[in-house]
Write a structure and sequence with these properties.
100 residues
């Protein structure tokens, strides 16, 4: 499944995310990494020093998504700034008439 506006593809399917009970807010391009992380957390009773490798990989994926969105927004702002700076035709104070 391709996500519009992102370079990463959705790897986990909707069925897999529903089966793993992934909350709606976490169903992004990194959900395929969250599923094994949550399984590890459950198996290890959420001990903070366990599942570090899985957590690191998941957080890195989320960080890359955030950075990608920030860069995209920065490009949009730069394009808007260029459009605002483009020279506009001044509105004449005295309109031209058909006879002039």
């Amino acid at each position: 499944m391709e996500v519009e506006g992102s370079s990463k593809k959705m790897i986990a399917t909707q069925e897999e995310m529903v089966e793993a009970k992934v909350p709606m807010g976490y169903r992004d391009q990194c959900a395929h990494l969250l599923i094994p992380l949550n399984k590890c957390r459950h198996a290890e009773f959420y001990l903070p020093w366990k599942c570090e490798a899985e957590r690191h990989v998941y957080e890195k994926c989320e960080y890359e998504l955030v950075m990608e969105r920030m860069l995209k927004m920065q490009k949009i702002r730069e394009e808007e700034a260029k459009l605002k700076q483009s020279p506009k035709q001044p509105i004449p104070l005295i309109p031209k008439t058909a006879n002039a």
